[in-house]
Amino acid sequence: MKVKNILGPDNNEYPKGFRSWTEYWVKNKHKIQLVINCPACNTTTRQEKVETAHVLKVDSKDKKEYIIPLCEACAHRESIFTVDENLLLSIV
Ligand SMILES: [Zn+2]
């Protein structure tokens, strides 16, 4: 699945009971081990260095906002990249 980052102000309105988007992602995708290799560039990334990026699907009718933990570099890249769709968590 090709996605791109939603650049701009950080969305810090976390769901009730969560202190970060990473915590929310881990809770909802708990079957998937965090961390890991970055899902976008495969760089091995320590958990405390992971940033949970907000992304949109590219070339899809689905315009929902998703979150996915990435390495610091991928969380800020402006180009389109490919990730496993199963790792995308909708927050809308
Ligand atoms: Zn990466």
Explained architecture:
- This protein is α+β, with helices and mostly antiparallel strands and 92 residues long.
- It has one domain (2-90).
- The chain has two helices and five strands, in the order βαββαββ.
- The protein has helices at 21-28, 72-76, and strands spanning 2-5, 51-57, 65-70, 81-82, 89-90.
- A five-stranded antiparallel β-sheet has the order 4-1-2-3-5.
- The longest helix has 8 residues, at 21-28.
- The radius of gyration is 12 Å and the shape is globular.
- The two termini are 18 Å apart.
- The model has no long low-confidence stretch (mean pLDDT 87).
- The structure holds zinc ion.
- Residues 38, 40-41, 43, 70-71, 73-74 line the site of zinc ion.
